[in-house]
Amino acid sequence: MDKRIGAQLYTVRDYTKTLEEFDRTLEKIAKIGYKAVQLSAIGPFSAEEVKQACDKYHLIPVCTHRSMDEYCNHLEEMIQFHRTIGCSIAGIGAVPNLRNNLSWSDVTEFVTKMNVVSRELRKNGITFAYHNHDVDFELFDGKRPIEYILENGDFDLIADVYWIAAAGIDPARFIKRAGSRIKVAHFKDLAVKKNGEGQKMAEVMEGNLDWDSIIDACEGAGVEWAVVEQDICERDPFECLKCSYQNLTKKGFC
Hints:
With 254 residues, this protein is of the alpha/beta class. The chain contains ten helices and ten strands. Helices cover 42% and strands 18% of the residues.
């Protein structure tokens, strides 16, 4: 696994809507020490604009999150976008309707369509990868969506360790099981809310996940990139990214 840690821009999505904001955000991330980024929830910038900004701050675009519509209906544009910015992993955030009455037919239809997309991307040197949530581990008529994806999907994974743990699954165990299918791991911690009110996202190594086992599993599986993400921050998201980065440097990341 490349030890140059990445920052998932979804964490700072409120600061990437215009090119000026995008530029300032990349500058802040680079100053923290991050060497790579995942491009998610950014403004409608051209590939050339994205590449120029990333190059300016020496940030490697290692992965994206784009919509199913873009992949299914504008695939050639997606191929050219990834080629231009120099990104070899094309990601998608979830099955559509993930938290809105997701049905088994949604899952099977998604896998069928994205298999076609994945094969076309692969012809162009780009890997397609699916990002999991806790819902992917729910039982639907005796089967879990993530199991169906692993068995029938002709594409790879972005393993989000928080959502795996939130579903009651040991992240390290799942990573070992999925093995080389995992190209990117999203690093975010899971902490317990006060007074038994449930779980919350936290900075890496500021919660309850076993990071030694997670990192070892990622190394063993051949995960290419670890990317810090924190969807919900209780303080300034840049401070959260800084805390996670500094903690990961204690584990050999840079």
